[in-house]
Amino acid sequence: MISVLEALEIALRQTKRLPVELVPLLESAGRVLAEDVATDIDMPPFPRSSMDGYAVRSEDVRNAPAQLAVVGFIPAGSYPSFSLQPGQAAKIMTGAPLPPGADAVQMVEKTRAREEAAAVEILESVTPGNNVSPLGSEAHQGEVVLPAGAFISPGVVGLLAAIGKSEVPVYRAPAVGILATGDELVEVTAKPALGQIRNSNSFTLFAQVRQAGGKPQLLGVAKDNKNDLRNRIADGLQYDLFLATGGVSMGELDLVEEIFTDLGCEIFFNKIAMKPGKPVVMARSASGGMIFGLPGNPVSATTVFEVLVRPVMRKMMGFPVYQNQMVLATLTEPFTNRSGRENYAPAVTWFEEKRFLVRPLKSKGSGDIVTYAKSNSYMICPIHRTDLLPKEQVVVMLRPDFFYC
Question: Which structural domain range is residue 283 located in?
Fold first, then answer.
């Protein structure tokens, strides 16, 4: 049995980034740039007004108030056909180019129009460059504005549009096969008979994979017999990442690891000092695909996903940071850990009065999905601790759910 840290290090060491693909700009959000991206134009491509007001020569208004003749109007999207001469001004809108001769803009709130005389009174002086974005002040043509490895946020999408990138080079999102195993599982639409349960793991994992940016595919439910398991697992090994839940413990019908080996997969570990989630098989197929045999208990499976599988997916997709956000939080209730393993307790974490607070939920075990569904994080109890006390500082892993609550 290895530690959680050892398991994560092994999994990441065996993971490779996926190949690069071009995607349409509108489909690029949430992905990671695979190449440096340079601008094809100066940004801005002309001296640009950052205010509605009047373009002026700063020397003409040094001794404000000063009255100037208004010789033109420059809306955004047009380029002036005139130059400013001494004693002249031009009405200008935000984003419009300055006319030659102008070196500043005074905002409209600090002016008084004299429409009957086609003039404007500038009430306060300006210095050269006031309320003006100079040519190329944001970036020059040919300059790299986004490095490889940058996360494509909505703001980055806007920048890519501004520099004319209709297609974007990104790391390919992994195709992920998801297989549930167990004779006790029935479909969501069926009412379980005695001894049966609905297959919830496949749907939880599907949602987690999609949330992580992958392309999930449900592969159904395999029965606890070698032929069915072997055929379905063989199909799953065609994916970039294959997740099987159940059948990885030490019982008579826990056959998944044996079949992985029979199919030529290389096994790296099969037990972790983690609660929930002790039985975990991590392997690699002969074709290079990553494989996880996850526990059958719902909370165990989803927890192992957050601790190990999501980091693997993030490395595949080129993210520079693999794990979920970790923070220090103040514990609000006592917590006991008698497992002898690193405990990832479902918890509710919130930010209040400039600090994180965390409350571990009272779970009835690794099958308690009712309690788990109320959590947004994990409170991590170290392997060497049996009791944590209120007001202690503890490490918390924030799941993505935290940021949407």
Answer: 4-18+172-316
What's residue 250's pLDDT?
Answer: 66
Please check whether residues 55 and 36 belong to one and the same domain: no
Using CA of residue 363, residue 369, residue 370, residue 376, what is the dihedral sign? Answer: positive
Distance CA 245, CA 119 (A): 77
* Residue numbers of the chain with a pLDDT score lower than 50: none
CA distance linking residue 354 with residue 399, whole number of Å: 20
CATH number of the domain to which 179 belongs: 3.40.980.10
In this structure, the number of other CB atoms found within 10 A of the CB of residue 372 comes to: 18
Whole-prediction pTM? 0.89
Q: Which pLDDT does position 252 carry in this prediction?
A: 63
Q: Is 321 among the domain residues? A: no
> 90 with 195, same domain?
no
- Cis amide prior to 97 (ω within 30 degrees): no
Q: What is the pLDDT of residue 248?
A: 83
Domain identity same for 221 and 121: no
User: Order of strands, edge to edge, in the sheet holding 279-284?
Assistant: 215-222, 175-181, 241-245, 290-294, 279-284, 266-271
Q: Can you tell me the distance from the alpha carbon of 141 to that of 131, in angstroms, rounded to the nearest whole number? A: 23
